[in-house]
Every structure is written in C-alpha cells, then in structure tokens.
TrEMBL record:
Primary location: membrane
SUPFAM superfamilies given in the database record: Adhesin YadA, collagen-binding domain (SSF101967), Methyl-accepting chemotaxis protein (MCP) signaling domain (SSF58104)
GO molecular function: ABC-type transporter activity
Subcellular location: Membrane
Protein name: ABC-2 type transporter transmembrane domain-containing protein
Organism: Aeromicrobium erythreum
Pfam families assigned: ABC2_membrane_3
Cited NCBIfam families: pip_yhgE_Cterm, pip_yhgE_Nterm, xxxLxxG_by_4
Membrane topology recorded in Swiss-Prot or TrEMBL: Multi-pass membrane protein
Length: 692
C-alpha cells in the first residue's frame, strides 16, 4: 500500500517556489555532513599529531659515579639520558618536548604554552643506582609530571600515557643493566665455586695427608713414650750406677791416695832391686856357663856309651836267637836274653841321664835368660817407677775429679729420669692428641670431600652466561611481557574508530532537521479520504529522500575527502541509508504525535541514545541504567552495524538490520496512528496551548 506519487512530491514541490526555500532544502541535506564529517575530521588522528603539542622537561638530576666491576668510577646520568630521549624523539605520537628551567616551565603550564611539564628530580640517578649498594639504602626514583586540566583534561591522560611509556623504557633499561651485572655475577659465582671446589679438594688431600701424618705421629709418639719410659728406667739405672760409681770413685780416690803414699819410696827401692837383679843375673850367667859345659860333657860321654850298649844289646839278641836255633839249653839262651835286656835297660838309663842333663841345661839356660830379663825388667821398673809414682798422683787427682763428676752424673741422671718420666707422660698425651688429630683429619677430609661435591654440584647449577646470553636474558627479564595484542578488525586511527558513532549522531541530527523543514503528515492528505497508512507514508517519503541524500553525501565525503578507510564501503553506505531512514521515521513519529514538543522529545531521545549506545567506551563501564537502555534503543544497533562496516566483520550485522527495520516499521505504524488520530479535529488542535 504505497502513497500516490502526487502526495509526497507535493510536499517537496512547496520548496521550488524560491531560491531561499531551495537553499533550505540544500541546507537540510548537508546538515549531517557538517556534523559527521567535521567531527570525524577533527578527531581523525589526534594521537598522530602530538608532535605539535609542546611540553617542557626540567632536568634537575645530579650525575653520580658508580664503581664498576674493575673498581673504576663510571659516571651515571639517568636524568640526562631520559631528557635526551624525550627531546630527541621525533615520533608523531610524542610531544614536542622542550628542555627548560623550572620558572619557564611553571609559567608555560599556567598560560597553556606547555601542555605538560616533566620534572626530573635531582636524586633520580642516585635512586636508579641505589640497588648496587646497601640494600637498606635502595630507593625508588620518582618523576614529577604536571598537567593543567583547566587547559585540557584529555591532554593529562595523554601525558600520563607518554610518561608511562618513557618510565617503562627507563625502568627496562635500568633493570637490564642491573640484571646484566647480576648475570655477570653468576659467572663470577660459578668461577668462585669452582675455585672453592678445587680448594676443598686440595683441603681434602691435605687433610688426608694430615691424617696419615697424624697416624705416623701417633705411632712415633707411642714409640717416644715407650722409649721415654725406657730412658727413664735407664736413667734411673744410670743414676744408681753413677751413685755406685761415685762410691767406687771415692774408694778409688782413697786407695790411690794410699797407693801414692806407699809408692813414694819405690823409685829408690826399685833402683836397688835393679842393681841386685843385675848382680844376680851375672852370677846366674856364670852358673849357666858351668852347667852348659857339664851337660855338654855328659852328652859327649853318654853318646858313645849308648851306641856301645845298643851294639851289645843287638849282639846278645842275635846270640840268643842262634842259641835257640842251635838247640842250646833254654836257660843259657835266657841268660843271653837277660843280658840283652840289661844292656837295653842300661842304654835307657843312660838316655834318662842324658835327658836329665839336657833338662838341667835347658833350665839353667832359662834361668839365665830369666835372670837377664828380670835384671832388664827391674832396670826398666827402676826407670819407670818415678813415672808410675807421678801417674799415681795424677790418677789420685783424677779420681777426686771423677768422684765429683760421678756425683754430678748421679744428680743429672736422677733429673734426666724425672724429665724422661715427664717426656713419657707428655708423649702419651701427645699420642692421644695425635689420635684425636687423626680422627679430626679424617672427619675434615670427609667434610672437605662433601664440601667439594656440594660446591661442584652448586657450580654446575649456577649458570655461566656469555655476553650475548646475558644481554638477551637481561632484555627478556627487564621486559618479560611485550605487547602482543592482536586487534581483530583494527582501524587505522582514532577518528575511524569514532566514525560510526559520529555518523549515527549526524544522521539523527539530519533526521531532526528534515522535519524542521517538512511536515510529518500532510494536512491535505488528512483532509482527504486517503488512509492513515498512506498519509504516514506520504509524510515519510519526502523525508526519506532527503535522508538518502544526507547519507550519500556523508559517506562520500568521509571516504573520499576525510580519508576514512572503511573495510566494507558498500555495507557502510547501505547501513548509513538504513540508519537515516529509520531515524527519519522515528523523528516523523515524534512530530506527528507531539507536534513541536516532539522535537524536544527527539532531543531527549537522542541524548539517551548517545549515552547508551557504547560509542566511545564499552557500555559495561557506564552505570547500569544506561546498560539497561543499551539494548532498547535503535542507535545501539546503528552504531554496531556501522562499526562492523568500518572496521570489518559481519557478526551481528543481520540482527542490527533486522532491529532497525523493526524500529522503522514501528515508527511508521505509530505515525499512521497519529494520522488517524488527526482525522478528528478537536478544540485543542484548533487552539493549541503552545505553538512551536
């Protein structure tokens, strides 16, 4: 059931009467363009033009010196580095930082020349390096950022984000340096542990050798203790022997004294004895000469006699044998044998006498020899006795000295025995100590080996990083989580993100402006026999035509001039057309029902829609009242659909279209009811209380 062509176009035909009315139609057509395009253009990329915003940095930081690992002082100026990073950063999303003094910074912030002032305190470098010293003295540095909300509130939020980024970068750099030193310390710790493990191994070897030496010492001290006991016994025996020797030395001294007294006359006596002995020796020599002559005579005479007796004996033996052989009477032969025996006996006696004579000669010779030696010995004795007597005197003196020495020897031996006893006792205690030392050395060796194993295990667990590894670990640990955000259907700029919201607002304002110019329902149509539905459509179609022009102009300018890069331009245009038609139908309904007051209601309605549409922040951040309205108002679905067309994605777009169509149909139905209601003229309609 569509309206006849004459009804809608008749309404538009009214604006062909003059240039002013035609300009009015043109003005209504471009109202959304002003709203939407200008708003979006103004906010197309505010964060990309922050380099046009001046900000001041005041560096009061004092440089400090920190001792490096080599002990040399190294300058650290964190504030200078931070200021240089800010001033030298030419990124479009960073302020145009200016290095200045505190006075200029304060005045510039107050009059708006500087939108932010960052003051770097004088102790920032000291605080940043405080982790390298006393832990109790470690403090956090503090950056002082000032903004002026009286100049711009959003600027304060932006400045906070910029400061947070700079602070994060500075913290990461400081942390990276700290961690690099920490990881380098791991290498030193590992090296120290390895050296300590080697030292523990050396200690264990030394303890083992100490234990062996202690065992040997214990054995030696036991031997020393036993030897000391033996020495003590020997010293006691020595003391006893020395005492006896002392007594004997005393007796010897007394005896030698007596001997000295008694031998004093010996030299004279021995000389007399020597003289007498020489006289005796002379007499004995004479006697021996006589004896030797006698013996010689005896031997000379007895030699012939013995030969004769031997011959006689032999003859008698032969005669006896012939006698018996001749048969002479045995008695006669026996007499011959008896005569031979007698001759033999006589020969034997002669030999005996000769032997005795020889013996006497030899004895006489020995006596003579002995007498000569006695005489010589007595002479020597006489010659040596004075020396002997002198030696006895010396021996007597030596015996006295010996007695004194043996007395001292006895005393020393007794003392040595006592010292040997003490030595034995000390050696016994030393043996106990050596045994304890051996046990302790064994325990020390076991402990050193366990320490070596523990240090070796600890060294293996302590990492040893190369320079590249330290830098990588420090960088990773200083910034363990990086920005890995993946924005689905991302838009290129802040303005593109707000474009759906501003487009919906512009199309609503455009719909409101349409019925500032057009009448929601034609009075002629109401007065005619046309149905209420046709009357409603007749009032809607002219407004819809203007709405289409508004939507096409708005989308065209945004895409072609402002530079909004829509992901789905066709869908964006279609949703803009649908949104404009729906908002036109709703505004028609307000005016159809409430007349001029309907425009006020349309303003209230758009305020509710703007606050409940979630066009800037998520609707969940708003109070629950707006969350309740969110799903009930058409702008919610218009913004969602336009956002999907701008950024990308079609999830929920069909439902958005369905809801908007429902709102449009509902609005047209209500407009038809309003037209039906106007077919009855009342006094209030003829004389309204308030004409808007």
């Amino acid at each position: 059931m569509l309206p006849t062509p004459s009804l809608p176009w008749f309404e538009l035909a009214r604006f062909r009467r003059s240039r002013l009315t035609r300009l009015a139609v043109l003005a209504v057509a471009i109202v959304p363009l002003f709203y939407g395009a200008l708003y979006i253009w103004a906010n197309i990329d505010p964060t990309g033009r922050l380099d046009h915003v001046k900000a001041a940095v005041v560096n009061e930081d004092q440089m400090v010196e920190v001792a490096g690992r080599d002990g040399e002082k190294q300058p650290v100026a964190v504030g200078r580095q931070l200021a240089a990073n800010l001033v030298g950063n030419d990124d479009r999303n960073n302020y145009d930082w200016v290095l200045t003094d505190p006075s200029d910074a304060r005045s510039g912030l107050a009059d708006g020349r500087y939108k932010a002032v960052l003051t770097i305190p004088r102790d920032l470098s000291k605080a940043a390096t405080s982790t390298s010293g006393d832990p109790d003295a470690a403090v956090q540095g503090r950056l002082d950022l000032k903004t002026n909300d009286a100049v711009n509130f959003v600027n304060g939020q932006i400045a906070d984000r910029i400061l947070e980024a700079a602070k994060s970068s500075l913290n990461a750099q400081v942390t990276r340096t700290y961690l690099d030193n920490l990881y380098l310390g791991f290498t030193d710790i590992k090296s120290s542990l390895e050296e300590a493990a080697d030292g523990a191994g050396t200690l264990a070897d030394g303890a083992g050798r100490l234990g062996t030496g202690a065992d040997q010492l214990a054995d030696g001290t036991r031997q020393l203790s036993s030897g000391a006991a033996t020495l003590a016994d020997g010293n006691r025996q020595l003391a006893g022997g020395a005492e006896r020797l002392d007594a004997g030395a005393g007796q010897l001294a007394n005896g030698l004294d007596q001997l000295q007294e008694r031998t004093a006359p010996l030299p004279g006596q021995t000389r007399q004895l020597a003289d007498g002995a020489e006289q005796v020796a002379g007499g004995v020599a004479q006697l021996d000469a006589v004896v030797q002559r006698v013996v010689g005579g005896i031997n000379g005479s007895t030699g012939q006699v013995r030969e004769q007796l031997q011959t006689l004996e032999t003859s008698l033996r032969d005669a006896a044998q012939r006698c018996r052989a001749d048969g002479v009477p045995a008695a006669t032969c026996a007499n011959l044998d008896a005569g031979a025996d007698a001759a033999a006996a006589a020969r034997t006696q002669v030999g005996t006498v000769t032997g005795r004579a020889d013996e006497i000669g030899r004895q006489s010779a020995r006596l003579n020899d002995g007498a000569q030696r006695v005489a010589a010995g007595n002479r020597q004795l006489a010659d040596n006795v004075p020396t002997l007597v002198g030696a006895i005197g010396q021996a007597s003196d030596g015996a006295d000295q010996l007695q004194s020495g043996t007395s001292q020897l006895a005393t020393g031996a007794r003392e040595a025995a006592g010292g040997a006893d003490r030595l034995a006792s000390g050696a016994s205690r030393l043996t106990d100590g050596a045994d304890q030392l051996s046990d302790g050395a064994g325990a020390l060796r076991d402990g050193a080996l366990r320490l070596q194993d523990g240090l070796t295990d600890g060294s293996e667990q302590v990492p040893d990083y190369t320079k590249d590894q330290r830098e990588k670990l420090a960088k990773t640990a200083a910034t363990p989580v990086t920005d890995a955000a993946d924005r689905l259907n991302a838009v290129a700029s802040y303005g593109e993100g707000l474009a759906p919201y501003f487009m919906a607002l512009a199309l609503w304002v455009g719909a409101m402006s349409i019925y500032l110019l057009l009448r929601p329902v034609s009075a002629r149509a109401i007065a005619s026999t046309t149905s209420a539905v046709r009357t409603a459509l007749a009032g809607f179609v002219p407004g819809a035509a203007l709405s289409v022009v508004q939507a096409v102009l708005l989308v065209g300018v945004l895409l072609g001039i402002v530079g909004v890069d829509a992901s789905q331009p066709g869908l964006l245009l279609g949703l803009a057309l649908l949104t404009g038609l729906v908002f036109t139908a709703i505004n028609q309904t307000f005016i159809a029902w409430f007349g001029g007051a309907g425009r006020f209601l349309a303003i209230v309605f758009v305020c509710l829609q703007l606050t409940a549409a979630g066009g800037t922040y998520p609707i969940e951040t708003s109070p629950s009242f707006f969350g309740f309205l969110h799903a009930l108002l058409p702008m919610t679905y218009a913004v969602h659909g336009l956002r999907a067309a701008t950024a990308g994605g079609t999830t929920g777009v069909a439902f958005d279209v369905f809801v908007l169509v429902v709102f449009a149909v509902g609005a047209l139905a209500l407009t038809a009811l309003a037209a039906k209601r106007r077919e009855r003229v009342t006094m209030t309609a003829l004389h309204p209380t308030l004409q808007v």
